[in-house]
């Protein structure tokens, strides 16, 4: 068991080191775009399934409440939370439409859509991403090594790992870094 623990921790560290060593410029670019969007009155719309759905809620909470500093709330909505909306769309249309219809209803061209899919191919995430692009939103994609989300995203964060857990661990660390940078940019704590 101890060797499994050490291997898991080492794999997690190596995956993060590899990702962040090659994505610093893109992370800074994304944080600046997020700060500009929020400063201009836009919002963040987040969507994903399973653990990625939980990550959407976690990320939205960091922006709406606070992350590292006391500051005013920033608008971010996890499209994974309203069970009445999700189940009515799933029932009346299909599970593939649960996020796209919400993006149609809530998305504005001054907003950023953040789609999260460890495979990069979740049908409902891809449909919502396509709607976001059609409506003129900036699309940020968090995925594994590839998939359709990488191809259509304006800003694509792809984690080169075959292990879903390692991908998710990078995604949440990335989210924390983005939130920290945005807070510093908007609230001048640099």
From TrEMBL:
Catalytic reaction(s) noted: 2 D-sedoheptulose 7-phosphate = D-glycero-alpha-D-manno-heptose 7-phosphate + D-glycero-beta-D-manno-heptose 7-phosphate
**Alphabetic keyword roster:** Carbohydrate metabolism, Cytoplasm, Isomerase, Metal-binding, Zinc
InterPro entries noted in UniProt: GmhA/DiaA, Phosphoheptose_Isoase, SIS_dom, SIS_dom_sf, SIS_GmhA/DiaA_subfam
- Quote the EC number: 5.3.1.28
Name any cofactors this protein relies on. Zn(2+)
Principal location: cytoplasm
> An example Gene Ontology cellular component term from the record?
cytoplasm
Pathway per its UniProt entry is: Carbohydrate biosynthesis; D-glycero-D-manno-heptose 7-phosphate biosynthesis; D-glycero-alpha-D-manno-heptose 7-phosphate and D-glycero-beta-D-manno-heptose 7-phosphate from sedoheptulose 7-phosphate: step 1/1
Question: Which top-level enzyme class is recorded in the Swiss-Prot or TrEMBL entry?
Answer: isomerase
Report the cofactor remark.
Binds 1 zinc ion per subunit.
Subcellular compartments: Cytoplasm
User: What does the record list as GO biological process?
Assistant: carbohydrate metabolic process; D-glycero-D-manno-heptose 7-phosphate biosynthetic process
Q: Which GO terms describe its molecular function?
A: carbohydrate derivative binding; D-sedoheptulose 7-phosphate isomerase activity; zinc ion binding
What positions does the entry give for substrate binding? 49-51, 62, 91-92, 117-119, 122, 168
* Limits of the SIS domain: 34-190
HAMAP family the UniProt entry points to: GmhA
What does this protein do, in the record's words? Catalyzes the isomerization of sedoheptulose 7-phosphate in D-glycero-D-manno-heptose 7-phosphate.
Q: What else is known?
A: The reaction produces a racemic mixture of D-glycero-alpha-D-manno-heptose 7-phosphate and D-glycero-beta-D-manno-heptose 7-phosphate.
What is the similarity comment for this entry? Belongs to the SIS family. GmhA subfamily.
Identification of the protein by name? Phosphoheptose isomerase
């Amino acid at each position: 068991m101890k060797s499994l623990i050490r291997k898991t921790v080492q794999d997690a560290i190596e995956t993060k080191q590899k990702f962040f060593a090659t994505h610093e410029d893109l992370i800074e670019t994304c944080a600046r775009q997020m700060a500009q969007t929020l400063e201009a009155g836009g919002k963040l719309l987040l969507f994903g399934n399973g653990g990625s759905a939980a990550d959407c809620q976690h990320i939205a909470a960091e922006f709406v409440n606070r992350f590292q500093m006391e500051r005013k709330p920033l608008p971010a909505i996890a499209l994974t939370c309203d069970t009445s909306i999700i189940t009515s769309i799933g029932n009346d249309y299909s599970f593939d439409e649960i996020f796209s219809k919400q993006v149609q209803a809530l998305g504005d061209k001054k907003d950023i859509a953040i789609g999260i899919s460890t495979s990069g191919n979740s049908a409902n995430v891809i449909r919502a991403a396509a709607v976001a692009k059609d409506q003129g939103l900036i699309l940020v994609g968090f995925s594994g090594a590839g998939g359709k989300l990488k191809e259509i995203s304006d800003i694509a964060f792809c984690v080169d790992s075959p292990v879903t857990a390692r991908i998710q661990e990078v995604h949440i660390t990335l989210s924390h870094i983005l939130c920290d940078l945005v807070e510093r940019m908007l609230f001048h704590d640099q």
